[in-house]
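Hey team,

Filing this mostly as a record. A colleague (T.K.) asked me to run one chain through the structure pipeline before their review meeting, and I want the input and output archived in the tracker in case anyone asks later how it was produced. No errors, nothing strange. Just documentation.

Input sequence:
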Amino acid sequence: MGEDWRHLKLGDLLVDAGAISKSTLEAALEEQKISRMRLGEILLKNGWLTERQLADALSRQLKLPFISLSKYKPSKEAVKIIPEAVAQRLEVVPLAILESGKIAIAMSDPLNVIAVDELRMITNAEFDINVATASDVRRALMNFYKVRSSLEDAIGEVAAAEDDFARAIVTAGSTQDVVGVSADDAPVVRLVSNILEQAVKDQVSDVHVEVYEKVAKVRYRIDGSLFEYIEYPAPLHPAVISRLKIIAGMDISERRKPQDGRIVVKVLDRRIDLRVNSLPAIYGEKVVMRLLDQGASKVGLTNLGLFDDDIEKMTRNIHAPHGIFLITGPTGSGKSTTLYSLLEILNTPDVNIITVEDPVEYTVAGINQVQVNEKAGLTFTEALRSILRQDPDKIMVGEVRDFPTAELAIRAALTGHLVLSTLHTNDAPSSIVRMVDMGIAPYLISTSLVTVVAQRLLRRLCPKCKAEYAMPSAIASAHGLPDGVRVYAPVGCDECRGTGYKGRVAIVEIMEVNERLKALVNDGASVPTIRDAAMENGMHLLVQSAMRNVLSGVTSIEEMLALSVHNE
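Output structure:
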């Protein structure tokens, strides 16, 4: 860094770059006199500047490279040169040792010459500076130091203990404060806690811990896609699995059968439920954990990203006095979230709502929720039979899995209750055939069924980097749209981990069962015939709902086409 940089001021630099106005700078400087916060923090806090805009401005004005740390893996040699405490305090990420002998680093504030001078004194080296966003730097420091140091310690401990994993694991209480794990805890304990802590911070939906012949991997599922988080030697895997099993209340001596368990973790004062499943594979057990954030604000029809007319239809039908309201779709399509969103509408003091679930994914105040326990004999069927004696107004059954459950659900609907449930089918009309295949008589289906909602989740385009372009003529023509329709494509930035997508949106196909459809069901009509009649009654297909989101700039053509392929 040249000596002339010492005289640069961040505010002047940002004004020169056009990132903020002079009036904004003056307001921020006035606030700084009172708060004593750094100028950049004030601009970010007040929404006058985004992290990416700040990094871009610094990169352009100082002629320094901008780097996305989500795509970068630093060398071990570089990480060892700068101690963890120093890197965390100065917010500097070491990247690589260059041929020139310089150390490549990433900073969110390259104007912090005091930090660079301190690094020079500690390492006796010169630096090549790259600019990164502050959140990217914080995430990288967590990955490159906290997780990897515990990983190296765990590898060393397991190697020393050979097959005796007792030293690498400890029994834990029912709730894990994963942030509170100290350096005195066993390395494997710290490693597992760090993995879970980062999963919560990154808003991961699932964590996969799997082993192959020589290596094991931890992968995170974010917005429907899997990303590799860390890789470690296969000999460490049994210790990691044992630790997970202990805190999930599973039998660590049983490695030949699948097991289910539950972990409750506390991260940043948030309570997160993890549903844990182990599965024996050829090189060892694979564990998958599904994260359920009890404090998340994802429940609610508006939070699903539905259009107003779809919300109106679902709200109107959910207030039917009796009948069956089904949500259909594959695993991971957001069916449970939609069910809870509907229950939220119905949940009033004058209504008795009882649910039977496996597992209970979200706890809701004012609703009586029953957890299925197959080992104790409390199956869906048994629980539903008992619920009918509890004077319910509305009943939610987690899933219609078989004939006994379906039969009881229909009986409840025919005796004056509204029953909400889920079913695994590709689209709404197919639910009729699925129930017939279960052994339910068509006349019972037509009498009880009120509404079927088929659902999928599509990835949302990242609002920071999506790019506008003209829809290809062939696709526009196929959907009856004029040439030149403007839509958006994914680009990729540090905000979305380079994927071009951030978050997901629900698309729905709502089939309201009217008299015409009831007659077709009684006559044993085919799925295409039922679909045509439902469309005449106002049903929009899933692909049509996806196209509406494409034209609204919410998702991409690629996501819509992927949906079409999956449904064929």
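Quick notes for T.K.: Confidence is low (pLDDT under 50) at residues 161-175. The radius of gyration is 28 Å.
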